[in-house]
Write a structure and sequence with these properties.
CATH topology of the largest domain: Alpha-Beta Plaits
InterPro entries: CheY-like_superfamily, Homeodomain-like_sf, HptR, HTH_AraC, Sig_transdc_resp-reg_receiver
Helix content: 40-55%
Subcellular location: Cytoplasm
Largest sheet: 5 strands, parallel
Distance between the termini: 73 Å
Structural class: alpha/beta
Main location: cytoplasm
Keywords: Cytoplasm, DNA-binding, Phosphoprotein, Transcription, Transcription regulation, Two-component regulatory system
Shape: flat
Strand content: 5-15%
CATH class of the largest domain: Alpha Beta
Oligomer: single chain
GO molecular function, one term: DNA-binding transcription factor activity
């Protein structure tokens, strides 16, 4: 029996939690209720609970402080956060502090709460070495787990009808709702927000809170950059696409609003045949890939796609070599444009990828013909084929090839440029505007490129993320103001683009290793000793 402590200043929420599920029947006992963090700590010391369910905002001691305090007392304590949408930033912080899960209050259901509690209970038992003493798992998997297995096997390998039938028979799967469809989400690359979808608890929990409905079941798996959702649904209207769009728009809105994550979504056709799930996955993935050719949208339906027509297009290596040897930039760029124009009408991303690899691999050969491997790490990043999947549009892919050959031309001259024209222009913009609240998006617009492309190129050429470069530059400018003026800290913060002087002070200390005052005193002491 796992012990649970509830902390929430709303009486109705505490009552709701106690009556939502049959606690003892499911292996849990509520050992205490607290209406603030202080009471929760006292109850924790008295009853030593295994699981804490807490609100974020409470009087005296809030949920964040409570989690931080109790984690120090009991490292393997599992915490579930109850939150509203407007507390989401706090939920993010709570996860970083060690919270295990969060639930949006308005979507709280017995099914979701019990599922989370059982998972946390197994984690606790496993950590305590009790796994062997747990009752054997039933041979028939729960419905959602079966769907997840099907989705995972369909994603990782080409699952045919017979292997899928074997899996369904093994799990004795009985379909609950008449229709299936798949939503495929592709993360838009941003080096400032390097996210592994497989490990991001917030994204997984957000999808649970937003997508659980009475008329559907869904399964979710993630790869490093993709989110896959399989729905088994009973559509409420005779317009399935409108309902599918509502799911996608809801997820897109909250990912942007709360996590500042941009995603592209592809939606498959609907099917009443469970054996067509691998086909639905291919359709959803193909639909998501159409964003490369149409940057005006973020949600794509497979039903609305024009057919793809793969094209065989080869690259003239001799012609490229001649243009590079004669430093004929203009004719080489015309040739690159012509090749890409040949593959564009195909709407086939694999054809575009092949051309990209052909161009980049030959650029690498040309570079190392004339240069030693002294700058290997930086250069290899530029010639890495996987950069293709970090670019967010056909135009960005083409521009990357253009910029790579510009890099070849620049490195062939007598004076090698430190940065490409795009990054040099972006850095100049930062230096002119660092005192304002500028963003990656604004700087990208000034360079006339997408923010994902600037993010990729910036890290390649400078070795650090855009946000780190901007922060470092601001701190360097603040050092001058500290030593050369009598400005107050809040004035210096404002001068170098920080809205919050406390945040500025923290960033300064993190990057310099001392406070503004310590920095000033140290340099004045050094100046005095040198006289």
């Amino acid at each position: 029996m796992k012990k649970v402590l509830i902390a929430d200043d709303e009486l109705l929420v505490r009552i709701g939690l106690k009556t939502t599920i049959d606690w003892e029947k499911n292996g849990f006992s509520i050992v205490g209720e607290a209406q603030n963090g202080k009471e929760a700590i006292e109850l924790f010391d008295r009853y030593d609970p295994d699981i804490l369910i807490t609100d974020i905002r409470m009087p005296i001691i809030d949920g964040l402080q409570l989690i931080q305090t109790l984690q120090k007392k009991k490292k393997n304590l599992k915490s579930i956060i109850l939150t509203h949408y407007d507390d989401f930033a706090y939920a993010q912080k709570a996860i970083k502090l060690g919270a295990s899960e969060y639930i949006l209050k308005h979507n709280l259901s017995s099914e979701e709460l019990l599922g989370i509690l059982k998972r946390l209970s197994l984690e606790i038992s496993s950590a305590e070495g009790e796994t062997s003493r747990q009752p054997a798992e039933p041979s028939v998997l729960p419905y959602q787990s079966s769907l997840e297995q099907i989705l995972e096997k369909s994603y990782l390998s080409a699952v045919g009808k017979h292997p899928l039938k074997d899996l369904l028979d093994k799990n004795s799967l009985s379909v609950e709702y008449p229709s299936f469809f798949i939503l495929f989400g592709k993360l838009i690359y941003n080096s400032d927000k390097e996210i592994d979808m497989r490990e991001n608890t917030l994204i997984k929990n957000m999808s649970k809170s937003l997508l659980l409905r009475d008329n559907s079941r869904y399964a979710e798996i993630s790869s490093e950059e993709n989110l896959l959702l399989l729905f088994n649904i009973d559509f409420l209207t005779d317009n399935p696409e409108a309902e599918q769009l509502e799911y996608a728009l809801s997820l897109e809105k909250h990912l942007q609003q709360f996590l500042e994550i941009d995603m592209i979504f592809g939606i498959s056709r609907t099917s009443k045949d469970v054996y067509e799930i691998p086909l639905l996955l291919d359709q959803a993935r193909t639909a998501a890939e159409r964003h490369y050719f149409d940057g005006s949208k973020t949600i794509f339906f497979y039903n609305s796609l024009e057919e793809t027509h793969p094209v065989a297009c080869s690259v003239d290596y001799n012609g490229i070599s001649e243009h590079v040897d004669t430093l004929d930039c203009s004719r080489l760029h015309d040739y690159i444009d012509a090749v890409f124009q040949t593959v564009y009408p195909s709407y086939d991303i694999n054809s575009v990828n092949k051309i990209f690899i052909d161009f980049i691999s030959f650029a690498r050969i040309l570079y190392f013909k004339k240069h030693s491997a002294s700058d290997t790490e930086v250069v290899e990043k530029k010639f890495d084929y996987s950069n293709f999947w970090k670019l967010d549009s056909f135009d960005s892919i083409k521009k990357y090839v253009h910029d790579t050959y510009d890099f070849i031309f620049a490195s062939s001259g007598s004076r090698k440029s430190l940065y490409s024209a795009v990054i040099a222009k972006s850095i100049a913009y930062i230096k002119r505007n660092y005192m304002r609240n500028i963003s990656l998006e604004e700087v990208a617009a000034s360079a006339e490129i997408s923010k994902s492309y600037l993010s990729l190129l910036f890290k390649q050429e400078t070795g650090i993320k855009f946000s780190d470069f901007l922060a470092n530059y601001r701190i360097e400018q603040s050092k001058k103001l500290i030593l050369e003026t009598n400005c107050k800290v809040y004035e210096i913060a404002e001068h170098v683009g920080f809205d919050n002087p406390y945040y500025f002070s923290r960033v300064f200390k993190d990057r310099v290793g001392m406070s503004c005052k310590e920095f000033k005193n140290k340099h004045h002491a050094n100046d005095a000793s040198s006289l």
